[in-house]
């Protein structure tokens, strides 16, 4: 599931030409052992594991794998790596909340540290997005620095704008995660090529609008075009949460296909990286939305 936009290219396991679902195409002249429905391409694809599977191995229809089962990614691997990544983020966020006060005397220093950590985390995220393989130290460093940023920002919002906003944002993020997981497992959400294209286009437009708003706010003062305050801010906050929910569906499909196609175990870190970024996105949108709603009271 490779996007031409490098920011979103992290979504999907890569092996040479990339993703096991969207980019996997039958090789020319490859023998067709049988046929099966490809949910991404919307057409019958050969089930020859060496023609359709970017990892060159899978268990579909009893095809012999190239690698021992113990070297392939499992759901337990994904859960453990995701728990580790989120654990690092939560610990550093709690430390930042406790050790970087946001009172009048210290808020400038604390916010400066948070912005610096956030910028470095963004750079590390870009580096991992461009890398062909997952780098656990890079992903954990990203999580640690992102945690520092979230800890200070959450403390500012919770203590100076909307009391209890951080906990409400956490609960909202968990609710969205569980709702999307249930909807995905029940088949209410169909992740196919059209869904992927729509989400990527919507996300790119959303990010560009926010970037323009930021530029106007920096050079023109205030809230720029007003996308982060008042009625427009509430609307864009809801859109941001909905986009995050769509990203979760893409992440779940990524994990499902990676396991089905026998992705190497180390690629569970890619799933952890993707899920962490998505959950951070949803949390930040909830935090902004709650700050707007309570700030207007």
- Which secondary-structure class do the elements indicate? mainly alpha
Helix content: 55-70%
Q: How would you describe the shape?
A: globular
Number of strands: 2
Number of helices: 8
Order of helices and strands: EEHHHHHHHH
Percentage of residues in strands: under 5%
Strand order of the largest sheet: 1-2
State Rg.
Answer: 21 Å
The major pleated sheet works out as: 2 strands, antiparallel
Distance between the termini: 43 Å
Report the average pLDDT across residues.
Answer: 79
Low-confidence stretches: 1-52, 57-67
Q: Can you describe this structure in just a few lines?
A:
The protein has 297 residues and is mainly α.
Structure description:
- With 297 residues, the protein is an all-alpha fold.
- The chain has 8 helices and 2 strands; from the N terminus they run E-E-H-H-H-H-H-H-H-H.
- The protein has helices at residues 49-52, 75-99, 107-130, 136-160, 165-185, 193-220, 230-260, 268-295; strands at residues 35-38, 43-46.
- Helix 5 crosses helix 7, helix 5 (165-185) crosses helix 8 (268-295) and helix 7 (230-260) runs antiparallel to helix 8.
- The longest helix is centred in the C-terminal third of the chain and has 31 residues, at 230-260.
- The protein is globular.
- Residues 1-52 and 57-67 have low confidence and may be disordered.
